[in-house]
Amino acid sequence: MSQRSDPIESASDGDRDLYDVATWEERTSLDGLAVAVHWLVVRSAKASLLLLAGLILLSILLSFGLGLVFDPVVAGLVALSAIPAFGLTAYVYVSDVTTSEPLSLLVATFLLSILTATFAAVLNSFFQPFFLEAGLGYLGLILFFFLIVGPVEETVKLLAIRLYAYNDDRFDAVIDGAVYGAIAGLGFAVIENLIYIARNVQGEELVVGAAALGAGDGIAAIRAMAGPGHVIYSAFAGYYLGLAKFNPDNRGPIIVKGLIIAAVIHALYNSLVGPASVGISELTPLGSIGALFAFVLLFQGFFGYLLARKLWRYRDVHHEVHAEIDAGASPELDEFEE
């Protein structure tokens, strides 16, 4: 990390006290007060943000009843819908060739992503009418996906990482960003699936488990297809967040690059899934669900492969660098062994 210095500090021989002239450190009581106020403001801002997210989440859950949220049938459907996303997240996790990420950071990122997802729900709902009522037809919907849904949802998932894991010293490698990105995508997919499934089975006689399952298993299968996409998009964005952490001079552009990649893939999926599925169902005997599954498999499989290639490249370079280090150290070891 390069750090620029004031001309005085650069020219100084190090023996001169430059405190409050060209350098600064905590010395006086006023300095201590400034440090304390800064700490309080930063922590209060984060706490307020999380409190707001929690209130929004509670209002969303109350909109269809907390009893429905905690119903075992709904919970089972949500769990089933999250299995593909969980499997892909596990793959990203085991692809990390550096130290394993601590459970505390993984759980915190997962929970934070559930909270920050509420901001996407509010913003998407607020902006949607402007695009759908603009008289642009399907073009308005595409613009909505590319200008609002993709950027907003990928940003709030990245926010879940930035609020906690990013600042931890155990986030110590670029690839860690992809791991936490995948976890954030999983959390986002879980809360999104919960909302869709709960609203789908709302009003059903949930006490008769089999009947409720019959009403909800279709939507659970459909939501299961959407889950891996969230993991892929945010794993891309998270990887570049990790790259930004270790390249602070270009932190902003690197983060923006990751968000652009994630948002474009996300918006592209949303724009194509409907017409492409209809086209496949009309050209093949797969039917609507089969056509949807075929499109998701092709689309997410392609971008999942690109993500895997990025992870493989990191792994290969990691092994090559360490092999070179080991090779450079071996002659000295041989001399001592003699």
Concise account of the structure shown:
With 338 residues, the protein is mainly alpha-helical.
Per-chain topology:
Layout lengths: L6 H5 L17 H35 L2 H4 L2 H23 L8 H30 L5 H25 L11 H28 L7 H37 L5 H33 L3 H51 L1
Helix content: over 70%
The global form is globular
**Count of DSSP helices?**
10
Task: Give the radius of gyration.
Answer: 24 Å
* Euclidean distance between termini CA atoms: 40 Å
Main sheet? Answer: none
- Secondary structure: number of strands: 0
Mean pLDDT: 85
Strand proportion, as a percent range, falls in under 5%
Please trace the helix and strand order, writing H or E for each element. Answer: HHHHHHHHHH
Poorly predicted runs: 203-216
Q: In terms of structural class, how would the helical and strand content be classed?
A: mainly alpha
What does this structure look like?
This protein has 10 helices and no strands. It is mostly helical and 338 residues long. Helix 5 crosses helix 7 (174-201), helix 6 packs across helix 7 and helix 6 crosses helix 9. The longest helix has 51 residues, at 287-337. The protein is globular and about 80 Å long.
